Amino acid sequence: SVVIQECYVQNTAREYAKLYAAEAEPLEGFGEVPEIIQIFLIHRPTNNIPYATVEEELVGEFVKYSVKDGKEVNFLRRDSEAGQKCCTFQHWVYEKTNGNLLVTDLQGVGMKLTDVGIATLAKGYKGFKGNCSFSFIEQFRALHQCNVYCEMLGLKSLRTTHQKQRKATSTKSKNLPNSSTVKKMVPKKAREPRDFTYSEH
User: Fold this and answer.
1) What are the boundaries of the region Disordered (predicted)?
2) Rounded distance, CA 105 to CA 36, Å?
3) Residue 176, domain member (yes or no)
4) 94-131 pLDDT tens trace
């Protein structure tokens, strides 16, 4: 069931967020860390929709912090503390999983997040099926800009590793036509926007 999958995605991302908090909170000057709220699955055998999810209601301005495509630049993401810490969280997870997993669709009220997604580079990474296209990972690599929180956690800049790889491929493959090396670097567009809403509680 899609509802069970959504539940699994959010609670997996929540575990990563707890590990991130454990590493970031002790750092001087880091401050509050974003939290992914828990989502509960309830089973109602007598109802015609037998599964539903229950979660804490978030009150306040609901903001989408994470990038979905290059066109959607969210200034609250770029300029707010919560937005920057969400971008750092994405970078942290990306680095921790060696670029195999990315938490996407970070959205919520202030530091409390919900309805997140997960993209994996390979299907079934650690037995986990992501619910977003892996092109989200390509996109993140191309668009992420490190901020002060990335620096505090000592995360490696994605720009420098990207450029080093580029130089390496261009020197190795001198005999290849340029177009093929250029094609590799073009991020694929995300195909399906995730628009699942479950008001059935």
Assistant:
1) 161-201
2) 11
3) no
4) 999 999 999 998 999 999 999 998 999 887 787 777 77
- Give me the domain span that covers residue 91: 2-153
The answer to whether 89 and 111 are in contact (CB under 8 A) is no
Q: Is 79 a catalytic residue?
A: no
In a domain, residue 101? The reply is yes
Q: 59-95, pLDDT tens digit by residue?
A: 999 988 876 554 454 555 667 899 999 999 999 999 9
The C-alpha R_g of the chain, in whole angstroms, comes to: 18
Marked catalytic residue, from 69, 79, 105, 115: 105
139/119 Cα distance (integer angstroms): 11
| Beta pairing, strands 101-104 & 39-43 | unpaired
Both tokens of 19, joined, read 């590990």
Which residues, listed in sequence order, are joined to residue 128 by a DSSP beta bridge? 125
Residue 184 falls within a domain, yes or no?
no
- What total number of domains does the chain contain? 1
Residue 165 counted as domain residue: no
pTM for the full predicted model: 0.74
